[in-house]
Write a structure and sequence with these properties.
Elements: H1 2-28, H2 30-36, E1 41-46, E2 53-54, E3 60-72, H3 82-89, H4 93-103, E4 112-118, H5 120-128, E5 136-145, H6 152-155, E6 158-160, H7 163-168, E7 177-179, H8 182-186, H9 188-191, E8 196-202, E9 208-211, E10 227-229, H10 233-242, E11 248-254, E12 259-266, H11 279-288, H12 297-300, H13 310-320, E13 334-335, E14 341-342, H14 352-358, H15 361-372, H16 380-392, E15 411-412, H17 415-422, E16 442-443, H18 446-457, E17 461-463, E18 468-471, E19 475-476, E20 484-486, H19 491-506, E21 523-529, E22 537-544, E23 551-557, H20 567-580, H21 586-594
Helix pairs in contact: 1-2, 10-20, 13-15, 14-19
């Protein structure tokens, strides 16, 4: 009997809970009523202003202007004067008819978008004649606008949401906009704000009578938060100018913080082209462009780093003890073993510092082979695994974690890769000697190369590169951007590397002589990345000043030749512009501006 009483007690308790909940929903909870009988209401969404994006100096990069969506409530439509609509909105008769055909037999109270993002001028005409357009009303929106034609791949753009976005995030409804690239995508939840809503009551004739419950259930829109980016707008604009009519990318980083000062992918696009009523048409043109202006080469295009990678191999050799600063090598114009690696003419022999200055291929073939044949490891494949782990600590073959979408990892060869290609125990250091000079099975993005330059400038550590300084009213960004990332290489070895880079720009045989800047101690390293599909790519990394680095740069110019001829001058002009505020080498600047490697 006790068990039966307990069961009955449970049943009664559950029934009471259900009855109380049903009473609360149907009698007390007005919000249920609003949803259940929504034909009696009209819901007007108030869209928040999207957050403004500034550069590091407080200059606006992205802001908003007021625009309007013209809406139709099908059930409220009266007799529409098509000619009048055409006049007000500058549409053809056929365009208007097509829009109404889209309505079909839809005659309920769900709002239908007639036109999107019309200008205030057109909206003013609509308001003057609004009494002639029964069933039409407007919704205030904002539209992105750009004071300067810079940073398309950095800033990104917004577009109307599709079904996949709506299914992924319940915040969005059809007709909303969302960031789809750049800062707009990475910081979407910060920039978008929060929508508000106003609820109006209809009478028996479906006319709007008054705010429901005097607006008790209305909510106000909350504007998006502003963002202070790390980008220097003037520097970004200057780099874009230098890279005009060229394929490639340039990244500049502040070594002491990891803040990205400029990130240019060329060709780029004007972000204003992807805002407003012509967005879709412009988007289609850019997607069809064979130079791919919407493809962010700086973070999405891993390429061989060429001789700039000798800096990494040299530091690993010093750390492993297979190389010393005093180690010398005679170069007769090529590395004489295996398939051989050619080298350009320079004085010989060279020690470690001079090997960087003259960029001796032979020196680094010996250095790399000694790393892999280090007797403290059981075999070259074991040594390769150790070498690869140390390379990864420089930020290669993985995402660095920049706060931009679609960053690629790049590649650094592994034991497994060679075992698969050659067969287990069927390869040796001579089989992969091209890794010594940054060729072969290795690919790095321009961002990764700039980060390597920043690491060397800091003598052994870097901060994760990032594109945003603060959010809202001084709110800090993610904490990982403030943490030092160490290479694990002893700081003392970096001084020799830095000296070699300095001599590359100042020495009589320095390969980076074109990167010299009056009154600034520039440290740089040239590279020429082999290209099986055409002319070689020009690569250059640098930082300055030597002992108090303020900027680190990587420049990658496709199909242009040697690093000292193209990438080095571009990077040095960027460096001078940033540190001096102006460029004094106007002849060099004009030479770069006149260089046309591709039509844009």
């Amino acid at each position: 009997m006790t068990a039966q009483r307990n069961i009955m007690l449970i049943i009664v308790t559950v029934a009471c809970i259900l009855l109380i909940r049903l009473f609360s929903i149907q009698i007390i909870d007005e919000s249920y009523k609003i949803t259940a009988v929504n034909n009696a209401f009209r819901y007007d969404v108030e869209y928040p202003a999207r957050g403004i994006i500034y550069d590091r100096n407080g200059k606006i990069l992205v802001e908003n202007i007021t625009a309007y969506d013209i809406m139709i409530t099908p059930r409220d439509l009266g007799n529409v004067d098509t000619a009048e609509l055409c006049t007000v909105f500058q549409l053809s008769t056929e365009e208007v008819r097509n829009i109404f055909r889209g309505l079909g037999k839809n005659r309920d109270y769900r709002a239908f978008t007639f036109l999107k993002q019309i200008t205030p001028e057109k909206y003013a005409l609509f308001r003057e004649r609004a009494d002639r357009f029964q069933g039409f009303y407007s919704v205030v929106r904002t539209m992105r606008t750009y004071p300067r034609d810079i940073g398309g791949n950095v800033l990104g753009y917004i577009q109307e949401v599709d079904t996949s976005v709506i299914n992924r995030d319940s915040y969005y409804r059809s007709g909303d906009y969302v960031g789809v690239s750049g800062i707009e995508e990475s910081y979407e939840t910060v920039l978008r704000g929060k929508k508000g809503i106003s609820i109006y009551l209809r009478d028996s004739r479906n006319r709007i009578v008054e705010p429901y419950e005097n607006g008790r259930f209305d909510t106000a829109a909350v504007p998006g938060r502003d963002i202070i980016s790390s980008i220097d707008g003037d520097l970004q604009e200057y780099v874009q100018t230098l890279m005009r009519n060229k394929l490639g990318s340039v990244v500049a980083i502040e070594p002491s913080t990891g803040e990205v000062l400029a990130l240019v992918s060329s060709p780029t696009f004007n972000p204003a082209m992807l805002s407003g009523p012509d967005r879709q048409q412009n988007y289609s043109v850019m997607v069809a462009d064979p130079t791919k202006p919407m493809f962010n080469r700086a973070i999405m295009s891993p390429q061989p780093p060429g001789s700039t990678f000798k800096l990494v191999n040299g530091l690993i050799g010093l750390d492993e003890g297979t190389l010393t600063p005093a180690t010398t090598c005679y170069c007769g114009g090529h590395y004489p073993y295996g398939r051989g690696v050619a080298c350009h003419g320079h004085s010989s022999p060279v020690n470690f510092v001079r090997s960087i200055m003259v960029s001796c291929n032979t020196y680094y073939c010996y250095a790399f082979r000694n790393i892999l044949e280090n007797k403290k490891y059981l075999s070259p494949d074991s040594a390769l695994t150790v070498w690869r782990d140390k390379v990864l600590r420089f930020g290669f073959a993985r995402q660095l974690g920049i706060d931009l979408p679609n960053e690629k990892t790049g590649i650094v060869a592994s034991k497994n890769l060679y075992d698969k290609y050659y067969g287990i125990n069927r390869w040796n250091p001579l089989s992969i000697i091209s890794l010594a000079i940054g060729q072969g099975e290795i690919g790095a993005t321009t961002l990764q190369m700039a980060n390597m330059a920043a690491l060397i400038a800091n003598r052994g550590f870097y901060y994760i590169p990032h594109i945003v300084k603060t959010v809202g009213a001084g709110e800090n960004i993610a904490p990982e951007y403030y943490d030092r990332q160490y290479s694990g290489i002893d700081e003392k070895y970096f001084e020799y590397t830095v000296e070699g880079m300095h001599m590359a720009t100042t020495g009589a045989e320095g390969t980076a002589w074109r990167a010299r800047v009056p009154d600034i101690e520039v440290c740089g390293k040239t590279g020429t990345a082999q290209n099986p599909h055409g002319r070689n790519h020009s690569v250059f990394v640098c930082f300055a000043p030597k002992n108090d680095p303020k900027i680190a740069i990587a420049a990658f110019v496709e199909n242009s030749g040697a690093g000292g001829s193209y990438a080095a001058p571009i990077a040095s002009l960027v460096l001078e512009k940033y540190l001096k505020g102006k460029v004094t080498r106007t002849d060099l600047e004009q030479y770069i501006l006149n260089m046309k490697l591709v039509e844009q």
